[in-house]
Design brief:
The complex is a heterodimer of chains A (288) and B (271).
Chain A: H1 2-11, E1 15-19, H2 25-37, E2 42-46, H3 54-63, E3 68-72, H4 74-83, E4 89-92, E5 106-109, H5 115-125, E6 131-136, H6 138-154, E7 158-163, E8 179-182, H7 186-189, H8 192-204, E9 209-211, E10 223-227, H9 229-244, E11 253-254, E12 259-264, H10 265-270, E13 285-287
Parallel strand pairs in A: 1-2, 1-3, 3-4, 4-5, 5-11, 6-7, 6-8, 8-9, 9-10, 12-13
Antiparallel strand pairs in A: 10-12
Helix pairs in contact in A: 2-9
Chain B: H1 3-32, E1 35-40, H2 49-60, E2 66-70, H3 74-81, E3 87-91, H4 93-99, E4 105-112, E5 118-119, E6 121-125, H5 132-137, E7 140-142, H6 146-157, E8 168-170, H7 174-182, E9 188-192, H8 193-202, H9 204-208, E10 211-215, E11 219-220, E12 223-227, H10 235-242, H11 250-255, E13 260-263, H12 266-270
Parallel strand pairs in B: 1-2, 1-3, 7-8, 7-9
Antiparallel strand pairs in B: 3-12, 4-12, 4-13, 5-11, 6-9, 6-10
The chains are: A alpha/beta (288), B alpha/beta (271).
């Protein structure tokens, strides 16, 4: 039996793991967990390692057929699709994957926690919060805002949007809301000044902040719901094995099944927020 | 009295004194030898270990030379505790039953959750019935270790071979497993009955989409055991662990998925 498995392994083209930079902890965790779970042979490329120059990567990606190319991070995805347009790829840890072309040979895991799941978590911690504000740009997040509003409505939550144009303006928004949700909005995230202005203004107005950015928990955000990196690796391995075994895959781009939740208890208490104590079990980190 | 006799007496007294000092140092050393609490449980998500260690050690440091040492790998854990005599061991009841005899362990405390020392595990799906083929082909989200999840599934479905179950994905928390089925990211969730009941209370709409496909027998919550030879001297250590609930360290207990510890009745292990 073992001999049969080994011979079928030998016949199967190798899966390549191409990591944007293995020395970055989150990418390293994803790859390590993937390798622990994945039961087929792999070869590895680390773009963070100087020995992997672009020409070497190109020749490696184009030299022979591969079972699958697993790309960890944006750089790995871009480079793979630049040099190898035809083979099956699986990607993860790519911020806002919608920016990139996805064809019939592309599979992936979204790096954003499903909107419905985030709203469910918000509600699990704070049942009384019914009006949540979001600052977003028409260019990047108009469609997302519409979909999120529909999801929120199902839960009896109203999302109140404030579009960002040239200047960030929160004075109209803040009096209408009970919490502010910072989403992956390039107009905000790419400008530290905007981010700090939001944090400062909300602090002054006693408005709790929900976000997906772990670093914001140290800057006063109350609830952070972000991706769990080990789960990304495990789920990627599950999808990869389904692909290699030619099993049906319902969703080519999947939502992540595991979240990482940080609850800033100190901040919640300082705002005198009423929260569900049972929900503390759902927090991976509680800041006191 | 000659000088020679005096010298002999001096040497004798010096010998006795040195021996007394050595004896005292030895006793003092024994008293301050660090006592470890070793932990391995398939019900604890390994990413929580660093937090558990920090919180446990911070609590234990008030009482002297104690340290908490969690393990993420069962084999390493078992090898490590093999020759340890002066320690407490935190492990799942399932694991305890497997190694207690070989390691001469005596159970002292058992975890309590919502007033009960037992819990049940359930399989949850969006389908009314979970067939055996579903266990082999569908994605199963679980917050327990793969080994433990397989053992639960094998017991629930009377399966002889764990190798056919190969689509288990470990998630950080039971609520992740339930959400993943509720939103359709996984087909099956393995979770405790307690977590499902809580989900029903806070997520009634998603809960309505779920059905229980199978339920386990009663499972004892985690156990604190000590090596047979340490039982008589373990009272202080056990009291320190038991009294965690009376302090701010109660949050640390919650990380273990329990509310408190209570003395175990040996007959409970026979069930």
């Amino acid at each position: 039996m073992l001999g049969l498995i080994r011979s079928s392994f030998a016949e199967m083209p190798k899966t390549i793991i191409i990591n944007s930079d293995y020395s970055v902890k989150k990418y390293q965790t994803v790859q390590d967990e993937f390798e622990k779970t994945f039961s087929y042979p792999v070869s590895k490329i680390d773009l963070g390692d100087p020995q992997w120059g672009y020409s070497k990567v190109k020749s490696y990606l184009t030299s022979e057929p591969h079972g699958l190319i697993y790309c960890i991070g944006t750089e790995a995805l871009l480079l793979t699709r630049k040099y190898n347009k035809n083979e099956r790829i699986l990607f993860s840890s790519v911020v806002n994957w919608l920016r990139f072309p996805v064809d019939e040979n592309s599979y992936g895991i979204s790096n954003e926690i499903h909107v419905g799941m985030q709203l469910a978590m918000f509600q699990y911690f704070f049942q009384k919060i019914k009006k949540i504000g979001i600052a977003y740009s028409e260019k990047y997040n108009a469609e997302w805002f519409k979909l999120a509003s529909i999801e929120a409505e199902k839960r009896g939550i109203q999302l109140i949007g404030q579009t960002i144009t040239k200047k960030l303006e929160l004075t109209e928004l803040l009096p209408q809301i009970e919490a502010l949700w910072i989403i992956p909005e390039p107009m905000i995230i790419s400008k530290k000044d905007y981010l700090f202005e939001i944090l400062e203004t909300c602090e002054k107005s006693n408005i709790p902040i929900f976000s997906y950015l772990p670093d914001l928990s140290e800057c006063g955000a109350v609830l952070i719901i972000t991706v769990d990196d080990p789960t990304i690796g495990r789920q990627s391995a599950d999808i990869a094995m389904q692909i290699l075994e030619e099993k049906p895959i319902q969703d080519k781009i999947q939502s992540l099944v595991g979240s990482h939740v940080i609850f800033n208890l100190k901040k919640a208490n300082s705002y005198q927020l009423k929260f569900n104590k049972d929900a503390l079990d759902a927090a991976d980190v509680i800041l006191k | 009295m000659t000088i020679l006799v005096l010298k002999k007496r001096f040497i004798l007294h010096l010998f006795i004194f040195v021996n007394l000092v050595l004896c005292f140092v030895n006793t003092a050393y024994l008293q301050t030898e660090k006592i470890f609490i070793y932990a391995y449980s398939p019900e604890i998500y390994t990413e929580k270990f660093s937090k558990l260690k920090i919180d446990f050690d911070s609590y234990l440091s008030q009482f002297g030379s104690y340290e908490f040492q969690p393990f993420s790998n069962r084999e390493i854990f078992e090898n490590y505790i093999k020759d340890k005599h002066q320690c407490a061991i935190l492990l799942s009841s399932w694991h305890y039953k497997k190694i207690a005899k070989a390691y001469s362990l005596v159970p002292i405390l058992v975890g309590v959750k919502n007033g009960s020392i037992y819990q049940k595990s359930v399989l949850v799906s969006r389908k009314q019935k979970i067939e055996i083929t579903d266990i082999f082909t569908n994605r199963i989200a679980s917050a327990n270790s793969i080994e433990y999840t397989k053992s639960l599934l094998m017991a629930m479905y009377n399966l002889p071979d764990p190798d056919k179950i190969n689509r288990i994905i470990i998630v950080p928390k039971e609520i992740d497993a339930l959400f993943s089925v509720g939103f359709g990211f996984s087909e099956i969730a393995v979770t405790s009955r307690n977590s499902l009941d809580r989900f029903k209370a806070y997520e009634p709409i998603l809960y309505q989409k779920l059905a229980i496909g199978a339920e386990s027998k009663n499972i004892l919550l985690p156990i604190i055991a000590v090596p047979d030879g340490f039982q008589k001297d373990s009272q202080t250590t056990i009291n320190i662990i038991k009294n965690m609930t009376k302090t701010q360290a109660i949050d640390t207990i919650h990380l273990l998925g329990i509310d408190a510890w209570q003395p175990i009745d040996l007959s409970e292990l026979e069930n």
